[in-house]
Structures are given as C-alpha cells and as structure tokens.
Write a structure and sequence with these properties.
Blueprint lengths: L3 E5 L3 H13 L3 E5 L10 H4 L9 E4 L7 E4 L1 H12 L7 H31 L5 H22 L12 H10 L13 H11 L2 H8 L12 H6 L5
Parallel strand pairs: 1-2
Antiparallel strand pairs: 1-3, 3-4
Length: 227
C-alpha cells in the first residue's frame, strides 16, 4: 500500500486527519504546511486545497488512481468509506455519524476557532466578540454534554469519525475559557477518547512545532499521574 500524503500542521483541524490516519492504521507521509509562514498559499498546495486550508491528503491508491481530498470532514468521510470502519453499521447509524460530524464542521469548529482568535490573537480587545463566541462555544458544549449523557460516544454506542472530528476542538476547552465543572459527561468522554493510543499518536504528531501553544491540559488535568 502506498503511503497517503498528509498535508498537515498541528492544529485541531490537522489533528482530525492525523488521528484518523492513526485510527484507521493507514500508512502516511507527513508534509508540513506551516500556516505561520504562509505555506498554505503556495501554488503547489493550492492545487490540492483550493481554499488554502490544511489538512489535505492525496491517496495514491484511490479506486481509479490518485485522489486528493481537502476539508477535514471530507477527509474523515473518505477514509471511513475507504476502510469501512468508524462510520456506523447501518443507515441509521451513519445518519447519526453524519449529523454530529456536520454539527462539528458548522458549529464547534468555527465557533471555538473564533473564540480562540478573539481571546488570544485579535489585535484589538473586543469585549462583545469575546462574549459572543465564548458563550456560543459554551452553549455547544452544553449540547454535547447532554448528548453524552445518553450515549457512550457522540454518535451512539460506538466510537466513530464524529468523535475524531469533535475531540480535537473540545480538548482545548481551557483555552476557550470553558469549564467542565457542569459538564461531567463531556469530561468523561474527553478522558475516554484520550485513552485511545491512536488518538495520542495523532495528537502528538509534530507537537513540538506548536511552541508556546503546546496545550498540555490533557495530561496535566485529566491524567495527573502521567504529567
């Protein structure tokens, strides 16, 4: 099997792809897309990812030849179809997986991303923006906590690509100025997913390149014995 080319930088969206490749057990070669240096605007990368966003992949063993896929949600769906894993066993289960995957793509990712931006990186201190996105992120995590009160994993009883999509963003709850004190089900799920070896490997990929954004909360707060 030819290794999949992974175009990646260690961010929550990048972790979705690296965790998925580790979970599916697919060989891959990493190509660094340093978003701080503007690698995402390079012409060669734009031919793969026209929206100048990573991650992206090239699967050289596609059904009719090499195929490139951009957008993290599309990558997860493609890999799940390719392997027949982590996508539900029937149509009802697949619908649940897709619902929660789209929920992440349209909600948690954009809202938590804006929360990070206005709390940490915006050149101006805009209280309205901070409150708006922090509060919407809290609302979404409340939705997730209530869901996880009913199910072991996000889409149901089994671990799926929906968990792979949501966990990288939810894992940064501290930087989003959120709390787990009133979200015990979310806290339980974060810990359960982090215990998976493939998640740890995917999360660790090029972790040293994050510098002061290394986000060590997982080990420190949920697994203090491993700090």
């Amino acid at each position: 099997m030819t290794p999949i080319d992974l175009y990646y930088w260690p961010t929550p969206n990048g972790w979705k792809a690296s965790i998925a490749l580790e979970e599916f057990g697919l060989p891959y070669t990493v190509h660094q897309i340093n978003i701080g240096k503007g690698d995402q605007f390079a012409p060669d990368f734009l031919r793969i990812a026209p929206n100048n966003r990573m991650p992206a992949i090239i699967d050289h063993d596609g059904v009719d030849g090499a195929i490139s896929v951009f957008e993290s949600g599309a990558i997860l769906q493609y890999l799940a179809r390719k392997t027949g894993r982590f996508y539900g066993k029937n149509e009802r289960e697949r619908v649940a997986v897709e619902e929660w995957l789209m929920w992440q793509m349209g909600g948690v990712g954009p809202m938590a991303g804006q929360t990070h931006h206005f709390l940490k990186y915006a050149p101006e201190d805009i209280a309205y923006a901070k409150d708006r996105y922090r509060n919407e992120t809290a609302r979404l995590y409340g939705v997730l906590d209530r869901r996880l009160a009913e199910t072991e994993f996000v889409a149901g009883a089994d671990y799926t690509i929906a968990d792979m999509a949501i966990w990288p963003w939810a894992s940064l709850w501290q930087g989003q100025e959120q709390t787990l004190d009133d979200k015990p089900n979310l806290a339980r799920w974060l810990k359960t997913v982090w215990a998976r070896p493939a998640v740890r490997r995917g999360r660790a990929l090029l972790a040293g390149l994050r510098g002061d954004r290394s986000d060590t909360w997982v080990v420190r707060d949920l697994f203090p014995d491993h700090a």
